[in-house]
């Protein structure tokens, strides 16, 4: 019924195994018009975000390389990523570059460079340690490219294809009202049962109305238990939504259910959707609002 599309800044964080192709990747993003920074220490990310925001729309596509060359700062990366997830104006995406051990060893031999984590040792020692250190970060990546069988040109072409058109999916929060007597919505991700709240159905003149009517909405929202529920559920969703978005989910369906899907769930669906509409693309669905059947 309603939607609110936000203009967001696209940020790609390029990370992964040393020798897996991060240099080719950052050059590819430069060719796509991204503002690129190589080896940005995570501790400087908050300051960099301030500069981005102050620039207005001039830095709306950014690519950053963050890797273990700055390992003394690396412990701060997860906090920086969590902070990013709380910002509604930016959509961060982690691109993790991977390759098998034999390929990485061969590439180090070809370039005659030492591994950054084993400057005076064997490349394999550094590769093993780096895999261990990057394991958690790899689990948080939205995109993982395995470059073992890729030539630099092929990696470049894949990035150009993936990011040349803004394929960034707008994260949509779809808040749905429904009636339990008509069955659970099969596409719901989160379900909240509000049948414990006072029911306007038992007030005769409100029975044929819906939660879209001001009188019904005022009745539903006036109770202390309703306000306490809304306080807790909006606080919970404010915590959860950025994490769903960060994991690359395109849509989250939040279902609010009462007995018939006509009064309480409708009023609360409208409230919750409006609460988040300034931070997320929101849509409202009232699945059972037209089913004017008697509740029991």
What structural class do the secondary elements suggest?
alpha/beta
Helicity level, as a percent range? Answer: 25-40%
Mean of all residue-level pLDDT scores: 84
Number of helices: 10
Number of strands: 9
**Over the alpha carbons, how many angstroms does the gyration radius reach?**
25 Å
Percent of residues in beta strands: 15-25%
Q: How would you write the strand order of the largest sheet? A: 2-3-1-4-5
The largest pleated sheet is described as: 5 strands, parallel
Order of helices and strands: EHEHEHHEHHEHEEHHEHE
Q: Kindly, what is the distance between the CA atoms of the first and last residues, rounded to a whole number of angstroms?
A: 29 Å
Coarse morphology: elongated
- As residue ranges, the low-confidence spans are 1-6
Oligomer: single chain
Describe the structure.
With 296 residues, this protein is α/β, with parallel strands linked by helices. 40% of the residues lie in helices and 19% in strands. The chain contains ten helices and nine strands. The strands form two sheets. A five-stranded parallel sheet has the order 2-3-1-4-5, sandwiched between helices. Strands 7-8-6-9 form a four-stranded parallel sheet, covered by helices on one side. Helix 2 (45-54) links the parallel strand 2 (35-37) and strand 3 (61-65). Helix 1 (22-31) packs across helix 7, helix 5 (101-111) packs across helix 6 (123-139) and helix 8 (214-221) packs across helix 10. The longest helix is centred in the C-terminal third of the chain and has 23 residues, at 224-246.
């Amino acid at each position: 019924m309603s939607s609110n599309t936000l203009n967001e800044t696209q940020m790609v964080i390029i990370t992964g195994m040393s020798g897996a192709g991060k240099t080719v990747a950052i050059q590819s993003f430069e060719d796509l018009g991204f503002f690129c920074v190589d080896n940005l220490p995570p501790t400087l990310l908050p300051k960099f975000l301030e500069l981005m925001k102050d620039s207005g729309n001039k830095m709306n596509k950014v690519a950053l390389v963050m890797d273990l060359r700055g390992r003394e700062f690396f412990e701060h990366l997860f906090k920086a990523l969590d902070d990013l997830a709380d910002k509604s104006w930016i959509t961060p995406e982690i691109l993790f570059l991977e390759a098998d051990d034999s390929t990485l060893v061969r590439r180090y031999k070809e370039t005659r460079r030492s591994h950054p984590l084993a400057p005076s040792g064997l490349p394999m020692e550094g590769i093993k340690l780096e895999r261990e250190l990057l394991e958690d970060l790899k689990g948080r990546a939205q995109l993982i490219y395995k470059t073992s069988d890729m030539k630099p040109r092929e990696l470049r072409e894949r990035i150009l294809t993936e990011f040349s058109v803004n394929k960034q999916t707008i994260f949509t929060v779809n808040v749905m009202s429904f009636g339990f007597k008509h069955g659970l919505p099969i596409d719901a991700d989160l379900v909240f049962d509000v049948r414990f709240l006072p029911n306007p159905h038992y007030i005769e003149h409100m029975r044929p109305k819906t939660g879209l009517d001001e009188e019904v909405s005022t009745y539903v929202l006036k109770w202390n238990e309703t306000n306490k529920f809304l306080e807790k559920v909006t606080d919970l969703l404010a915590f959860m939504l950025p994490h769903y978005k960060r994991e690359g989910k395109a849509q989250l369906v939040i279902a609010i259910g009462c007995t018939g899907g006509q009064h309480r769930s409708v009023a609360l669906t409208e409230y919750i959707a409006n609460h988040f509409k300034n931070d997320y693309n929101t849509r409202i669905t009232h699945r059972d609002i037209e089913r004017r059947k008697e509740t029991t």
